[in-house]
Amino acid sequence: MRLTPFSLSTGSSFMYSRRLKKKTFGTAPALRASAISRRPSSRIFPSFSRNGLDLTIVITLLWPPVPGKSLIVAKPRLFPGVGRLGWRPLRRLFLLLPVGTGLRRARFLSTTSPDGNTTFTGLRRSARTQRRASTSQDWTTGSNGRMVNHTPRAALHFVFKVGNRFQTARFYRDVLGMKVLRHEEFEEGCKASCNGPYDGRWSKTMVGFGPEDDHFVVELTYNYGIGDYKLGNDFLGITLASSQAVSNAKKLQWPLTEVAEGIFETEAPGGYKFYLQNCNLPQSDPVLKVTLTVSDLQKSLNYWSNLLGMKIYEKDEKKQRALLGYADNQCKLELQGIKGVVDHAAAFGRIAFSCPQKELPGLEDLMKRENQKILTPLVSLDTPGKATVQVVILADPDGHEICFVGDEAFRELSKMDPEGSKLLDDAMAADKSDEWFAKHNKPKASG
């Protein structure tokens, strides 16, 4: 759901909205709280003073449960001088609305101008559901007690380095049932090390169950001449819900191990683990979570939640496990605590998120202030014939690579290419490296 800001003010009053005149209960089409929060009109409300308290409150009725209907209540100043009470008692009042009133609890932030006026900023649910809204904000309380601003961010993809494109393509297309969203070939290494610490020719293939706008996908990077990569203990697996994938694996005799009732473990070429739930959930994206290891769960939660603004959905201190995400309907990040050091070896991956491009410099500055590691400062990445995107590459306390990309340009870049699957097949057919190494009885290099 998208959250839309609305305002409450002390020290000034609100003009009675034309929309309220037309609709007694404020159910006009495309109702927005921000549209009814207007500046004062002394002609309409001559008794309002700068010391008065005037509120425009948007509340949602719990009963009867009519989806998308809101009741708009205009509350003028009732008592002279009430504004001198300050905003803290009033904020406490709204946060502690009695359950018997049938009102939802509201959340408010406040800002005070130099002249003493205070503005409350609250959040309400919008009737429009969007996965990546461009204007919404979501404030919650972080684990350290301070307010965290969840800007419109989205989980995009996880990056794997692969050595055998033929078997890899077979696994993702034929076993998991994913589609090739786009394929690109590059003559030299990526400025943001997307393909790892390699400077030679490489390719990138995006695969998923649907477009990256509303699906979490996988990025497969292939470095020509490298046949395998040593695995570490940093990546534990990707979990997805697809009875079709389970059926495909059994039909193709792809190795499956039932680790729990209805949950099967399998491996992609290269040793990357996947967990397949033998069910189909009522959501568009079957990919549920990516699981990474951490050496200190609390330290990692401080980083991912308090610095990067992720919401903590689940936390189990005993099992040293936590589940985080930017939205209910997005792929989640699961952190699993382990004893010892997190080893990334050579097969280390990278998780990517999008955010508004204008936030990238601020994100970089935040990491500098917090003395956190920045692997690649803000840089522009060019893709021939496609959009240029800006990225910042970070590393969490355990060295997990995190890419934040500007959302606006990435939406253009990530559009599905109907020729993607053919481009991958053509590239694999033109790649004669396996034949060359076999002919000369030499193994490919290890990453």
Topology:
Elements: E1 3-10, H1 18-22, H2 33-36, E2 53-59, E3 71-75, H3 87-95, E4 108-112, E5 118-125, E6 138-141, E7 147-150, E8 154-162, H4 165-175, E9 179-186, E10 202-208, E11 217-223, E12 226-228, E13 235-241, H5 243-251, E14 257-260, E15 263-268, E16 272-277, E17 287-294, H6 297-307, E18 311-316, E19 321-325, E20 332-337, E21 350-355, H7 360-369, E22 373-381, E23 389-395, E24 401-406, H8 407-413, H9 420-430, H10 433-439, E25 445-446
Parallel strand pairs: 8-11, 12-25, 13-16, 17-20, 21-24
Antiparallel strand pairs: 1-2, 1-5, 2-3, 4-5, 6-7, 8-21, 9-10, 10-11, 13-17, 14-15, 15-16, 18-19, 19-20, 22-23, 23-24
What does this structure look like?
- By secondary structure, this protein is an alpha+beta fold.
- It is built from 10 helices and 25 strands.
- A hairpin with a 4-residue loop joins strand 18 (about 310-315) and strand 19.
- Its main location: mitochondrion.
- This is Glyoxalase domain-containing protein 4.
- Interacts with NUDT9.
- Keywords: Mitochondrion, Phosphoprotein, Repeat.
